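Standup notes, structure subgroup. Blocker cleared on the adenosine monophosphate input:
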Amino acid sequence: MAYDTQNIFAKILRGEIPCTKVLETAHTLAFRDINPARPVHVLVIPKGPYVTWSDFATQASPAEQADFVRAIGEVTRLEGIAESGYRLIQNNGDHGHQEVPHMHVHVVGGASAGPMLRRMEG
Ligand code: AMP
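Run returned:
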């Protein structure tokens, strides 16, 4: 899928829409989800134009990838959930129910995330 430069996270990256920033590094931005699912709900996004994890894995540089992975760890420390635990959620495309077509990881914590996806019937 081609990258849509008008998606909401692209606008946040360009400063056209505000966000509550948690962390910014050379290649990564982390900010609070506008509709939090738990007391801590931070979105971590690469600054580059990647739609899915697959795009990020194949098109991003090793420096961008390393920066992204480290930033997620840093967010868990900054938010005080590294010890109590947290869930990383990453949705892709139609079957993943991805709403915003800019690759992102949800860092969710501060309360139990609940069980995993329920198993399929049958
Ligand atoms: P996903 O379904 O994985 O694409 O998740 C998109 C997430 O972006 C949802 O949890 C939304 O609440 C969140 N979101 C949408 N618009 C904004 C915004 N302007 N600022 C912060 N989070 C947003």
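Discussed briefly. The mean pLDDT is 97.
Next: hand off to the docking folks.
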